[in-house]
Design a protein that fits this description.
The complex is a heterodimer of chains A (349) and B (294). Chain A is 63% helix and 5% strand. In chain A, 37% of the residues are buried. Chain A has a 4-stranded mixed sheet. Chain A has 349 residues and is mainly α. In chain A, helix 6 (153-184) runs antiparallel to helix 10. Chain A has 2 domains: 3-42 and 152-344, no CATH class; 50-132, D-Maltodextrin-Binding Protein, domain 2 (3-Layer(aba) Sandwich), CATH 3.40.190. Chain B has 10 helices and 14 strands. Chain B has helices spanning 43-50, 72-75, 91-101, 108-115, 130-142, 160-175, 187-193, 211-218, 256-265, 280-288, and strands spanning 5-14, 17-27, 32-36, 58-63, 66-67, 76-79, 148-152, 179-184, 196-201, 204-209, 222-227, 242-245, 248-253, 274-276. In chain B, helix 4 crosses helix 5 (130-142) and helix 8 (211-218) crosses helix 10 (280-288). Chain B is globular, with a radius of gyration of 23 Å. Classes of the chains: A mainly alpha (349), B alpha/beta (294). Chains A and B meet through helix 1 and helix 7 of A and helix 3 of B.
Chain lengths: 349, 294
């Protein structure tokens, strides 16, 4: 292996990345916009919100304080009240699940409508009923606060968005680019030099990992200045986990890059892999309560292990020993993908 | 002297299609060898197999009397017919990148001077004209001081001026003692540049030799061409063989004076007469009954 050749290809690939200003900018802007967007939408609150239709009301915007509905229902959190002029308009929205609950204003007995097919409607109905129970009745339950500070939704979501960005960047930045190079003849030109496949693939992988980690640091710093993320564990451990994750995702990109000359087909394959990975690796929502087979299927994705480990370090203060199983799986996946990618690789069309 | 390259019974098949069908030739050091033939004749496949870019189905390729080793790529220069380069690099950076891939190289300054790259050296490699691009690709092929240089259709798509400039460059490189193998479907190019030519058709070599020898062997005589409307003679009354080609008639003769005398004696108007010397195009036409660019 020649380091001179490897370095030349590494440098050339980095020039390409940094000089493609639009793609370069988007690489930083996309995760930042996602985090900022979710930060603004949820503002640190839970993302679950129930929509309550109220009629009769002349305007859609209603002043909650002036509504003639039970006071304790008005005081509940996570409820949004929307006004309708009459029952017909409200029922139309309820039927299409645009609202979860419809309530007629006025003194009791209160009239409300709820769809039997709506789980959220059922929850609001129970909340509404609870608000009608006299205050003096004693609850057979005692409230306890959770210890320490609770994990904000934005703190939970942030590593997911970063990891998702890494996944897209690794798969497209290696898989798609190498297929394009094979199709337009760049690989053929390189094959006619002493450069060998191992040197070429290693340079591609190192270049992508360097760019992924560079992006990670910039985006993390930028977002942290605005949202002040809470990291219970060590930043170094977190960096090592993201590094291992990017190694494994880049290696998966090399497997996809090893054959094929059709950019359209490669896009299809990349979507086929990245979309299930995005939804099943708990980027956006937890799989807690999902069927066991769904949870087991998610374990085949490197993103799942990277995110599990990153969240353990970030939210639970775990060290590398505690996330040992994830580190071992990510390392084994990397070795497997690298071996497969190198053995399948072809320069030619 | 031992040939620098020997190709023996080379065969390349793609499923049922035989692209190269038992091709053999040997190239002496320092010559410019041309593979001439129409599009689809198998020229590019032949040289890409020799270049070790695609594997052969059968046959043997010897470089300096031995099978090609790992050092083969260090010693040959290759210019592909169509190639893309690493994106968003300048001409200088592309040369530097390729320079790092080889052990023994020319300096950038030498290549700039040899291939006249100075005026566009710091432009992106995809923002240069067709003629500049061909000179740049030639510089890339020369970057490792190759002893053997492959040029696949080097002047395709160039205007006549740019083509002439490129020919001068190629002749200069050949004059330095480098061995050249080029493919072309331009008979003027083969005739102008090549010491030896192999004519390919349907994957086979149908004739081989120096351009002059091929012309002498396969295309004797001068062709006299006249517009058909000027030619009022009855074909059977004229003593020389006459062939009708589109709007013209062609008369082949070994003695142009005698032919002209006969035409004058038959009251033929010679105002628009053309006299054509034999060339590789006529060799190909005589061998296959088709024109090179049909």
């Amino acid at each position: 292996m020649s380091f001179k050749r490897l370095w030349a290809i590494f440098k050339a690939r980095n020039y390409e990345f940094f000089r493609d200003h639009s793609a370069f900018g988007w690489n930083f802007l996309f995760p930042f916009l996602l985090v900022a967007g979710f930060g603004i939408i949820f503002g640190g609150k839970s993302y679950t919100e129930y929509k309550i239709g109220i009629f009769p009301s002349e305007t859609k915007q209603v002043s909650v304080a002036e509504l003639n509905i039970p006071q304790r229902f008005k005081d509940m959190q996570y409820l949004k009240f929307i006004g309708f002029p009459n029952a017909v308009d409200g029922l139309e929205k309820l039927r299409h699940h645009r609202i979860d609950f419809l309530l007629k204003t006025g003194n009791g007995p209160h009239q409300y409508w709820v769809s039997d097919a709506s789980p959220k409607g059922y929850v609001v109905e129970q909340m509404f009923k609870a608000s009608l129970v006299p205050v003096e009745s004693k609850l057979n339950a005692e409230k306890r606060e959770i210890q320490g500070s609770a994990v904000r939704y934005i703190d939970w979501l942030f590593p997911g968005i970063l990891a998702m960005n890494m996944m897209f960047s690794a798969l497209w930045g290696v898989g798609y680019v190498v297929v394009r190079y094979r199709k337009n003849g760049v690989l053929k030109r390189l094959k006619a030099t002493p450069l060998n496949a191992f040197e070429y693939l290693t340079a591609q992988a190192i270049s992508r990992i360097f760019l992924l980690m560079f992006t990670l640091v910039i985006v993390w710093t930028g977002c942290d200045l605005i949202f002040s993320f809470r990291v219970q564990g060590s930043y170094l451990d977190l960096f090592i986990i993201f590094f291992l994750g990017s190694l494994s995702l880049t290696s998966l990109g090399l497997v996809l890059a090893s054959r094929g000359t059709s950019e359209e087909f490669t896009t299809g394959i990349l979507n086929f892999i990245s979309w299930p990975m995005m939804f099943l690796s708990e980027v956006w929502f937890s799989l807690e309560g999902a069927p066991q087979w769904v949870k087991s299927s998610a374990k085949i994705f490197p993103l799942t292990h990277m995110l599990t480990a990153a969240r353990k370090v970030m939210h639970d203060g775990a060290g590398l020993i505690e996330v040992g199983p994830e580190i071992i799986v990510l390392t084994l996946m990397t070795l497997g993908f690298l071996t497969l990618g190198a053995s399948l690789f072809s320069w030619n069309r | 002297m031992e040939p620098i390259l020997e190709v023996k019974n080379l065969v390349k098949k793609y499923d049922a299609v035989v692209a190269v069908d038992g091709v053999s030739f040997a190239i002496r050091q320092g010559v410019c060898f041309g593979l001439l033939g129409p599009n689809g004749a198998g020229k590019t496949t032949t040289i890409e197999v020799i270049e070790d870019v695609i594997p052969p189905t059968a046959g043997e390729i010897l470089y300096k009397g031995k099978s090609r080793s790992s050092s083969f790529r260090e010693e040959v220069g290759i210019q592909f017919q169509s190639t893309a380069l690493l994106n968003l690099l300048t001409v200088r950076e592309t040369l530097q990148t390729f320079q790092s891939l080889f052990t023994k190289t020319n300096t950038i300054e030498e290549l700039v001077e040899l291939c006249r790259l100075g005026e566009f050296l710091d432009q992106y490699n995809d923002k240069i004209s067709g003629g500049q691009r061909q000179r740049f690709l030639l510089a890339l092929a020369l970057i490792n001081r190759p002893e053997l240089l492959f040029l696949d259709e080097p002047s395709t798509g160039l205007d006549p001026q740019a083509r002439r400039n490129l020919w001068d460059l190629i002749q200069g490189i050949n004059a330095e003692g480098k061995t050249l193998i080029l493919t072309t479907h331009y008979m003027e190019e083969a005739q102008h540049l090549c010491d030896e030519v192999a004519i390919m058709d349907y994957g086979k070599i149908i004739a081989q030799g120096s351009p002059d020898a091929l012309i002498r062997q396969y295309s004797r005589g001068i062709t006299v061409v006249l517009p058909r409307e000027r030619y009022a003679l009855k074909t059977n009354s004229f003593p020389l063989p006459v062939r009708e080609v589109k709007d013209t008639i062609e008369i082949k003769t070994d003695d142009v004076n005698q032919c002209l005398e006969q035409l004058i004696s038959h009251d033929v108007d010679l105002s628009d007469i053309t006299v054509r010397s034999p060339n590789l195009e006529s060799v190909f036409l005589n061998l296959t009954g088709r024109k090179l660019r049909e």
